[in-house]
From TrEMBL:
The keyword Cytoplasm does not apply. PANTHER family: PYRUVATE DEHYDROGENASE E1 COMPONENT BETA SUBUNIT (PTHR43257), PYRUVATE DEHYDROGENASE E1 COMPONENT SUBUNIT BETA (PTHR43257:SF2). GO terms for molecular function: magnesium ion binding; oxidoreductase activity. SUPFAM superfamilies: Thiamin diphosphate-binding fold (THDP-binding), TK C-terminal domain-like. It comes from Geodermatophilus africanus. This is Pyruvate dehydrogenase E1 component beta subunit. Its cofactor is thiamine diphosphate. Residues 6-181 form the Transketolase-like pyrimidine-binding domain. It comes from the Bacteria. Gene3D superfamilies: 3.40.50.920, 3.40.50.970. The keyword Oxidoreductase applies.
Length: 326
């Protein structure tokens, strides 16, 4: 049977396996991804089946991982780099924004950078400092990089394969607290395009936007709102750079209201760009300002306080109520 019940983690594992079987130039690099299979076991069993030359246990040196990937990409390989936790990406930030993002333009198109940078992102797992960050705005603001965020097993399975096949560098964000969420995945289906947003719940009163780990939270909020007679349309953005706002604009022009939700701090977060774009495109249709729900402008707190920090159902519904009051 082509349909299986998979977690996000297992879907990523099978997606990586499939693309490695199809393309001998694909190789994986990261800390503890080989014998251990990664902290979250996303690469479990791949080194055993594909060998140490294609699934490489690297030193604890993120700048070295990305610098090596640049050289491999120049030689025709397709490196897939795992950053063990979101907060560990910053030692590699220089390589990503000054080399990975720019070499194609610097070489006037002669050199491609088909590099995928896998980053488990977001909070909610009770971890210590540097393990619960949301760094997407840094990369979305960098020309030359593409950024996608999956929220479910179907997108995880197909998205990782599409990202690896793409000729440009992609920051591939995985919602770590959702790794164990399950769904039916048809491994013989025709997938949606990688750089496309999707309406995941229809509604008439308010458009609510989210990506990654917040999609599940927003869907739960929509269910709760329905019990009170309010109809929320939920859009999973899926791609953060480039943004696909056509479905969003179509929805907002119909509902007249929009709430943007992400875990990252609100100030200068992705929601600010999206709110500005929606205002430009939908100004005459808006019945209320675009409202944003996100993390607070503080460093990510200790695990005992993270439930107070992370947007939850109540904070989403409060924003919906404020939008409807206009």
């Amino acid at each position: 049977m082509s349909t299986q019940t998979l977690t996000i983690g297992k879907a990523l594992n099978l997606g990586l396996r499939r693309v490695m079987e199809d393309d001998a130039k694909v190789m994986l690099m990261g800390e503890d991804i080989g014998r251990l299979g990664g902290v979250f076991r996303i690469t479990d069993g791949l080194q055993k089946d594909f060998g140490e030359d294609r699934v490489v246990d690297t030193p604890l040196a993120e700048a070295g991982i990305l610098g090596t990937a640049v050289g491999l990409a120049m030689r025709g390989y397709r490196p897939v780099c795992e950053i063990q936790f979101d907060g560990f990406v910053f030692p590699a930030y220089n390589q990503i924004v000054t080399q990975v993002a720019k070499i194609h333009a610097r070489s006037r198109g002669k050199l491609a950078m088909p590099i995928v940078i896998r980053i488990p992102f977001g909070g909610g797992i009770g971890a210590v400092e540097h393990h619960s960050e949301s760094p997407e705005a840094y990369f979305g603001h960098t020309p030359g990089l593409k950024v996608v965020a999956v929220s479910n097993p179907v997108d995880a399975y197909w998205g990782i394969q599409q990202a690896i096949a793409h000729p440009d560098p992609i920051v591939f964000l995985e919602p770590k607290r959702r790794y164990w969420d399950k769904a039916e995945v048809d491994t013989a289906a025709t997938p949606d395009p990688l750089f496309a947003s999707r309406v995941v719940r229809g509604g008439d009163d308010v458009t609510v936007l989210a990506y990654g780990p917040m999609v599940k939270t927003v869907l739960q909020a929509a269910e709760a709102a329905a019990e009170e007679g309010r109809s929320l349309e939920v859009v999973d953005l899926r791609t953060l750079s480039p943004l696909d706002l056509d479905p969003v604009v179509e929805s907002v022009r119909r509902t007249g209201r929009c709430v943007m939700v992400h875990e990252a701090p609100v100030t200068l977060g992705l929601g600010a760009e999206i709110a500005a774009r929606i205002t430009e495109e939908c100004f005459h249709s808006l019945e209320a300002p675009v409202l944003r729900v996100g993390g607070y402008d503080t460093p990510y707190p200790p695990s005992k306080l993270e439930e107070e920090y992370l947007p939850d159902l109540d904070r989403v519904l409060d924003a919906v109520d404020r939008s409807l009051e206009y």
